[in-house]
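Need Succinate-semialdehyde dehydrogenase/glutarate-semialdehyde dehydrogenase's 3D structure for a figure. Predict it.
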Amino acid sequence: MDMFIDGAWSATATGATRAITNPATGAVIDTVPWGTAEDADRAIRAAATAFASWKRVPVEERARLQHRAAAAMREASEEIARLLSLELGRPLKGALQEVRRAADLLDVYAEEGLRLTGEMRQSALPGEKVFVTREPVGVVVAITPFNYPINLLVFKLGAALIAGCTMVAKPADDTPLSTLKLASVLHAAGLPKGVFNVVTGRGSEIGSALIAHPVPRKVAFTGGTEAGKKIAALAAQTMKRVTLELGGQCPAIVRADADLGVAARAIVNHAFANSGQFCYRVNRVYAHRSIYEALLEGLAAHASALTIGDGLAGDVSMGPLVNEKIYANSAAQIADARARGARILTGGGRLSGDPYDKGFFLPATVIADADHSMKVMTEETFGPVIGVMPFDSDVEAVERANETRYGLAGFVFSGDIGVALTMAEEIEAGSIWINDIHRSRHDVPFGGMKESGVGREKGHYGVEAYLEYKTTYLSYRGALA
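Structure prediction for Succinate-semialdehyde dehydrogenase/glutarate-semialdehyde dehydrogenase:
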């Protein structure tokens, strides 16, 4: 599959390609171009040409096209989801859900665009009007991760398009196929050429070229914190705006008065979704000492019931980890916890034998008796591993929850809503769930505090991140006849 530039498939001039493999089987699915700075320039110039006309399309027409694009995504959802499952290893059911949720987000953004307004200020001067309007920021570079390649792209794409921006996207090296397919689907649905372009290649080459290029005015990135810092530094050289959704090490607090059945189920379902490969998953759990062993029993029971295998081979709960690097981080955290005296209640080691030998299959791993000397409680895991630690007071639990450089999400389980809300106020995170965990809503802001990022996505908050304010002063003279 080639890159998608200016409404057409495009190879790189060098002819270099990279194989895309199925992480469950090791089989090569397809190849993509290993693009260069020259390819980045071609895509950006196509987006810049398209921007000149796209920004002038009335927002009502952009919304109509975006709704049509969402409908086309749903029609092609099974084809896109199959590619996503092949390249990521996620069970097909979850891949299909991602594509359809992303289509819903396109619709939400379209409606938010129709609600954008400007202002006319009251002026103290006779013969003067002051208008405050919002204009699209310009060409946008989107750099997206492997774990939710469609949904996290649409976080950015849907907001940019309805605002009047055009985009060049660079998907993750492991999962470009679903994004490339999406580009062709949206173009066939009526999105003008050059409005949405996709390039593939090494981040240090084509990614850096996109960010450093003088034409784009914004970079939107989801990924690791260290990569985000480098992107922000490079973007600052040309004063580009940035939206950065970065790492997380998210705490869950379970008080003595919590419904332990609900808490155990919610924590396991959330922590091990997508094999733990997402940023706002539960990474560490703090349980009141009086219910500590009971909660551990519930967590272990739910985690042990999760099935693992090839996402296209049957109805399984978890697929493989996407590559050796991602697996190695989880393995290192498990080994570190063992060495420091923790108990491994479930999982704890890579599965072997047929059909597991060809992929990095790690079962849901629950680590008991963890503490903050262990990596699992202090570093992002991005895999199917959680650490559990007892606490004795609410103050201690909140202090432990905030003892991190991250601040993406937090979770509280308690029968006392007043205490739970107070904890939510004190936890330093962009989103807090109380007494259950579900997907983040499309109409409210999503993003992090501290080193978990800059800016917010989703809802009108996301659209506004792609707009500039402009103030116009109008002086006039007129006399009534």
